[in-house]
Amino acid sequence: MRAFIPLLLAVSLPLAAAPLHSQFLPPDDQSLRQEAPTGQQLLQVTDYSVVVGTQRQSDQQPIPITASLQMRLKGKPLSKGATISQVLLTFDGEGGKSLKKPVYDEKTRTLALNYPLADYRVIMDLLRNETLYVQFLTYANGHIWADLHTGTVRTR
Fold first, then answer.
1. What SS3 state is found at 45?
2. Is 26 inside any structural domain?
3. For residues 80 and 11, what is the distance between their CA atoms, to the nearest angstrom?
4. How many domains does the chain have?
5. E strand or H helix at 76
6. What is the pTM of this model?
7. What is the DSSP letter of 59?
8. What backbone phi and psi angles, to 5 degrees, belong to 101?
9. 109: alpha, beta or left, given left = phi > 0 and alpha = psi -120 to 50?
10. Span of the secretion signal (predicted)?
11. Is 28 part of any domain?
């Protein structure tokens, strides 16, 4: 029972304190995260699915064919007041030159994240071998942070 006490205390801290899993944030070199976050969505991933799709619009000439690679993550919310129910990852084959910003849709309770196609294998490896978390933080200055991360992993 003792092992659960620190976790319970961390969950009950007000949002003004450091966000859960703040130890996984990179250094704030540009001082964008000086204030406490105004919102946090933290999800522990329990299930995932991968969709590789293609579509063809037959009413256009020449006929454009587009393909997409998406991953849907589902899990359990961990942060206080979190309403997130799923995360939709879209992979961009353009090498990530200009990825869309992370967006949380409160109606559907879906966080949309975009990653370069090169990250697909890394994410699949993490899903297969580690406990994976999704974190989404918003700040009053308009800064948004989103990530996928593991917990602390012991070397073998």
1. strand
2. no
3. 6
4. 1
5. strand 65-77
6. 0.76
7. T
8. -70, 155
9. left
10. 1-17
11. no
